[in-house]
Amino acid sequence: MASLTLTDPRTKQVALKVTPFTDDSLFNSLKKYNCFSMLLVSKGRGTVQRDETQYAFNSGCLLSFAIYQPFMVKPADAVEGVLVNFHPSFFCLFKHRQEVSCNGVLFNNLYDTPVAELTPGDLRSLSVIVDQISSEMQRRQQPDQDVLLSYLKVFLMEASRAKIEQREGAQPVKAPLTLENLRTAIETHYKTLHSPGDYGDLLHISTKALNKACKAHFDKTLTDLIAERLIIEAKRELYLTAKSVKEIAFELGYEDEFYFSRYFKKKVGVSPQIFRDTVGFDKLTA
HTH araC/xylS-type domain: from which residue to which, for each copy (predicted)? Predict the structure, then answer.
């Protein structure tokens, strides 16, 4: 089956896209999409790189990536499956968080893997939903967006449930108390404390020891964790509010909006304004 695309008539951008794949040609170099991306892998195993970190995956899994989040697939053998992309203008996770609680489960979790391991039943269920989305998109008449939205919501809910069950069923690997305190500290202070040294001072531990613990447990540096948390919030503000880049920069602790813009572009690959232009803008109403 060829790629199927639903286009937003207002912006002319992709709203929803379904792309079957039978090899890694779509993902064998670093990819960044201005939408949410999910790879339902029915066959194959290997590793996936998200940002700077590598994660192993096996046949029968879902790989999920946030807006403009860089990823690349490195298969160990032949891979098959389907890529589903959806733009936040088509379905906004933030505005529909009460209906579909996948933000922080499938997407935008600093500390968790992007890989959701699926049972055979989960894989069949998600594959059926993708088939239903594809059938609706192939209708001779204009596809019914309400129907497509309903299918996508069910897909996200089923995938989130599978990811949560995977967490609950896994052998618990409890983070050291220091890292639990660090996670709390980042969530509390990420707008005002931007350097590893700030968190070392706050937790009364050397920066070197804190970085070593982060790398061992999360396979990320403390600098990475701070940056990712800042960028998640910056993206949310750029999409959901009418605030200027200068206002957002100030709220995130940057007095110089140009420094913030350079920082954002270095981490995301596009400037804040281009992010807003390509992802879209929608005032927060939820």
Answer: 180-278
The CATH number fitting domain 177-279, selected from 3.40.50.300, 1.20.1290.10, 3.40.50.720, 1.10.10.60? 1.10.10.60
What does the DSSP assignment read for 184-229? HHHHHHTTT--SHHHHHHHHTS-HHHHHHHHHHHHSS-HHHHHHHH
Cα distances (angstroms) measured from residue 183 to each of 178, 217, 254, 270: 9, 12, 21, 27
Q: What's the distance, CA 168 to chain centroid? A: 21
- pLDDT by residue (tens digit) across 222-261? 999 999 999 999 998 998 888 999 999 999 999 999 999 9
Tell me if residue 12 falls in helix, strand or coil: coil
For the segment(s) 4-169, the CATH number from 1.10.3210.10, 1.20.1530.20, 2.60.120.280, 1.10.580.10 is: 2.60.120.280
